[in-house]
Amino acid sequence: MNFTIGENLGDILIEIAQEKIKNCKFDDAIYTYSNTFPGITKGLILKILKNELVVVTNDDHQTISLTDDENIKKKNQHNIYDWNIITKNIIDDIQNELQTIVLYKSNIKFDINDYCLYRIILNPINDKNRDELSPINTLVARYISGEKLSLTKLPPLAHLLDEGNENFFGLDEEYKNLYIICKYVDCIRHLYKNIIKLDKLYHFLIENKLIAHIRFIEDIFERSISQFLLPFVDEDKGYHHPLCDKPILELKQNILNNIKNTACGKEFLENGIVTKNIEDGYDAGYLTPEGVFYGLNGSANELLHTQLTDMLTSKLYSDTKYNSLDSEYNLMKQYGLMKIHGDHVYGFFTFNKEEAEKEGIFCPTDKQIDAICRYANLYHRGEINTDTGLGYHPVRISALKQMDEIALRNTFAI
Predict the structure, then answer these.
(1) Nearest CA to 299 among 311, 309, 307, 291?
(2) Confidence band (pLDDT; 50, 70, 90) for 163?
(3) For a Cys-Cys bond, which of 227, 229, 248, 282 suits 295, CB 3.0-4.6 Å?
(4) Own/partner long-range contacts of 36-43 (Cβ < 8 Å, ≥24 apart)
């Protein structure tokens, strides 16, 4: 029995493999090639996925070859997935879910955690004058348990956010609460799935050099985990109903367990904050002597450094001295952190060498200077401003690199 190999074998294999990667089935993606071509190495498979090599069918239609011919690679480029677009789509979905959760919370008069998801449903509503609510309550419980129910099955709820239905059956607030619960839990479930998927996909792509670093991605993980997913898994709060108590508890446990297995989730649970990339250009941040950067984005009236100080001193630097209004400066002085806000860079280094050595912090470290230089070159045309107490002082990065320890200490001293 004779078999022939089709001309489009390479196209078929790379489509299958990339779909496996897209669905986070990475071993299956590798197996797509290793099963077809016994003995092929993972290194060669990755080169195929990067379009550095192309699978071509030889003229005899019995054998295949790998080629790096530029013309063939150019023709094959349309088969290669744009992983930047794919990851961006997941990130866009996450950002939309975060906004939707905030929207639903803001569309109710009471805080959703303290009121909707706790007090009003803790004791089922049995008022005889409110019999209409009972079947809706049951449907809500089924819906947030994960059953594939359409919100069209909840007709009184579907239009409650419309201005014309504020007094529906005289139970507008209760119905609205139930509607918010439905949408809130549904958004949390989708957010959780997308965060876990993004974590797995992004790290696979990064590790195998199929994609470059995505700007602010650590911030997306941190905000999603700290502000949305972890508050949801709080066992003291939730939608209480016999039909969904167990499913919701299982959902919370799954979320927490899987967060612990993500790089950012594990770091946040251990340190209360996530390391960021200074080259992403955050609006504000702290830089440690080891060159580790912690940053946030936002406007000046959001007191970003105050938020960062609270996050850092919650676990990572919990033994910061004098936990007071001066904790920001104490944090800098005690641990040698440098404060960055736009093109302004501050230190808390003393002019006095003996005092500096006594405090254990002599001057900015090489890693701090290197990170500041990279940041300034990317976003501030190679120049920063410092404040030594006598006003702002512009410093060129080229000059900063030439400074000795005494000059560095004096430049960043407050």
Answers:
(1) 307
(2) very low
(3) 282
(4) 37/64
